[in-house]
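Look over this record before class:
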Amino acid sequence: MRVANLGYVILEMQDPAGWAKFAKNVLGFGVAKSLGEKGAKYLRMDNAPFRYMIRKGEADRFVAGGYQMASKKAYIDQIKAFEKAKIDVCHGDAKACKHRAVKAFASVTDPSGNVVEIFHGRAKGEPFKPGHGIKGFKTGKMGLGHMVLPAPNNEPTIKFYLKVMGFGVSDDLRLPAFAEGLPDQRVYFMHADNPRHHTLGLYNFPNPTGVVHLMAEVNTIDEVGDCMERVKKAGLHIFASLGRHANDEMVSFYFFAPGGIGIEVGYDGKQIKDWSKFKPTKSKIGDLWGHEYDFPVVE
């Protein structure tokens, strides 16, 4: 498998400094030194140079996820796989690589319009300790966490990640439609070359922000609960109460960060030590308990 983990994400915000302040005050992230992109804020979760790049933009939206490749060879092989599949590849120039603290990166667009970046040769960052007494986020070789992306062009998008990028299947979750006249919901979960149950999920509906949610994992239920209290104090909307998922067994809650970006904070996510012995599941329930959803009504 060529993809090692989700190394970074890029967001575009009208107020990058405000988003960075939220991330520090609520999530316990740190603000990293600038890597040169004008107006951007870089956020840390661990010893990596950054995990979130918050660009200055006219709209609040998710821009791209950056996948760390297992090696330079894996990076080159992935480029070849894109070219073989007749997918247009945009190679990052030296300045853009500097902004990401990597030796090389390239970007493509998946069949649902999501921008995918791949990279190798990431620079090492300085030691980092999260705020609010958090001992550490579960990152390292498992990457920053996971993300769920909108994939309305569902089957071709799933095929792209499985066949072209080489992700493995973790779980195929099917849920009833949330409104009459709409198709059933589907979230297709995939893993990279690390123990995290899933690095990527694909949801078969569009999303106005470009991302369904981003997940950050901590080490204790108290750290989850403390974060939930900070979210409430900040006046941010919790759209899923505390609960445990059925497939990855994560205990978590969800809320909307500034700009409408969905964030999941959890702990105790399942890890698979040997994927060769894992049998992908087909789930019909999303949760073992909790996760009562409360989405704002848009009139």
Observations:
- The chain has two domains: 3-120, 140-290.
- The mean pLDDT is 97.
- The radius of gyration is 18 Å.
